[in-house]
From TrEMBL:
The keyword DNA-binding applies. Residues 16-84 form the HTH gntR-type domain. It holds the Pfam family GntR. This is GntR family transcriptional regulator. It comes from the Bacteria. Keywords: DNA-binding, Transcription, Transcription regulation. InterPro entries: Bact_HTH_transcr_reg, Chorismate_lyase_/UTRA_dom_sf, Tscrpt_reg_HTH_GntR, UTRA, WH-like_DNA-bd_sf, WH_DNA-bd_sf. The keyword Cell membrane does not apply. CDD domains: WHTH_GntR.
Length: 248
């Protein structure tokens, strides 16, 4: 277990709630690398002492950090810093790059392959184009803090994204590039999550053994002109979570 010699205590004179100040202080330790992945953090009593706040306030801050993917609690053992983890649930429509930044993870993308090809029936139906129409296919390795999170294969109608194939090696945030160069701004997306396994061809890239359970995510993204992206992703199950809040 790690401890902290000094930690900025919440200031009751500030307008921000005490739990928010505590959350920010603890999150800073993770972002600065003072608390590293897999490290056990001090228990609630010690955090109350270090921060000068109540147990309820500490629990509020810890719960928010856990929900954001920074911490994990293990029953009977304690609370630990998570490895880079992407948490999916109720959220706005964002690019992978934007989502990584929201989770305070450094986004990274490695282009594995860019191709022009004729759309098969599955891709054509998803993009509402004719089978045989030309699409740009981008196969990319997605990274968070330098560690592989998933592999994504995206298809976009060439007629709507002129210049993308030629610029593919320079594109980091696809949605930013589409907005700036093609006037495409996403307005909604449909996603389907399935349980799958890491393919043998992807095992080395994603740093997991072939056959390891993984999430398969199918996504169709739309702007006001209709669907512009059909993507299939394989996401590491140990670095990607799905959480939902259910209401009566």
């Amino acid at each position: 277990m790690t401890d902290i010699v000094t930690l900025e205590k919440p200031d009751r004179r500030r307008p921000e709630p005490l739990w928010h100040q505590a959350e920010t202080a603890l999150r800073g330790l993770i972002e600065r690398g003072e608390w590293t992945a897999g490290m056990q953090i001090p228990n609630e009593d010690r955090l109350c002492e270090l921060l000068g706040i109540s147990r309820i306030t500490v629990r509020h801050a810890l719960r928010n950090l856990e929900e954001a993917g920074f911490l994990r609690r293990e029953h009977g053992r304690g609370t630990f810093v998570r490895a880079a983890t992407m948490v999916a649930g109720v959220r706005g429509l964002t690019s992978f790059t934007e989502e990584m930044k929201t989770l305070a993870l450094s986004p990274g993308t490695r282009l594995l392959e860019a191709r022009l090809l004729a759309a098969d029936q599955e891709v054509a139906d998803a993009l509402e184009i004719a089978a045989g129409d030309t699409v740009v296919q981008l196969r990319r390795l997605r990274l968070g803090n330098g560690m592989p999170i998933g592999i994504q294969t995206a298809h976009l109608p060439e007629a709507r994204v002129p210049g993308l194939y030629e610029a593919a090696h320079e594109v980091q945030s696809l949605y930013t590039w589409l907005k700036e160069n093609c006037g495409i701004t996403p307005v909604k997306a449909k996603e389907v999550y399935r349980v799958g396994r890491v393919a043998e061809a992807d095992a080395e890239l994603i740093q997991q053994a072939a056959g390891t359970p993984a999430f398969e995510v199918e996504r169709i993204a739309y702007d006001r002109g209709g669907p512009f992206e059909y993507a299939i992703s394989t996401m590491r199950a140990d670095r990607y979570e799905i959480r939902s809040t259910l209401h009566i």
